[in-house]
């Protein structure tokens, strides 16, 4: 007799999150992005911001009888939260700020089980970016890879070669920390 498993709903539009879930053996049965206001609150720290948004995206989706997973990634320099860049000028400001600097990436994951229990976890990664030349900034901006990425870069693409060192979770930087995600799902009874 094979036990059936409740469906998994991914409350995210990010194709990276879908791919990472699939890679760890938890392919989403449904993609249902949650559209919420992602502006930071006054005085909110980057880690608080990531946690609030992941829980907010989860709360925005109601799927009875399903596991639901939501996540949020925030790039921070000190207490400063960098935007998810939609315009080239915004991405340029982020790259100039991150050039030669240490920064952190926080990714919060929130999961709700079919019985209504919910839990969340936060992954914190410290990274150092090399000092970028004008030519590197210009060609990265031309690549368009910064579009829709927190902090104006994606470590999984060309900008991976700008990262000198990383302590924490590589998959967390890409958008879904797979260790924490598996722990959350397992803790809520999801069978891999
Ligand atoms: C820093 C960094 C971020 N990112 C991505 C991860 C997230 O998809 C995105 C941050 O925005 P998020 O708001 O976390 O996610 P999203 O808008 O892509 O999807 P949704 O809100 O529907 O869940 O930046 C990378 O892909 N690579 C990186 O190196």
From TrEMBL:
It catalyses: dTTP + H2O = dTMP + diphosphate + H(+); UTP + H2O = UMP + diphosphate + H(+). CDD domains: Maf. Keywords: Cytoplasm, Hydrolase, Nucleotide metabolism. Residues 45-54 have a biased composition (Basic and acidic residues). Residues 28-54 are annotated as: Disordered. GO terms for cellular component: cytoplasm. GO terms for biological process: nucleotide metabolic process. Its cofactor is a divalent metal cation. It is an enzyme of class 3 (hydrolase). The record marks 16, 73, 156 as: Important for substrate specificity. Its main location: cytoplasm. Its EC number is 3.6.1.9. It is found in: Cytoplasm. The active site is at residue 72. It comes from the Bacteria. It holds the Pfam family Maf. GO terms for molecular function: dTTP diphosphatase activity; UTP diphosphatase activity. HAMAP family: Maf. Nucleoside triphosphate pyrophosphatase that hydrolyzes dTTP and UTP. May have a dual role in cell division arrest and in preventing the incorporation of modified nucleotides into cellular nucleic acids. NCBIfam families: maf. Belongs to the Maf family. YhdE subfamily. This is dTTP/UTP pyrophosphatase. It comes from Alkalicaulis satelles. The gene is maf.
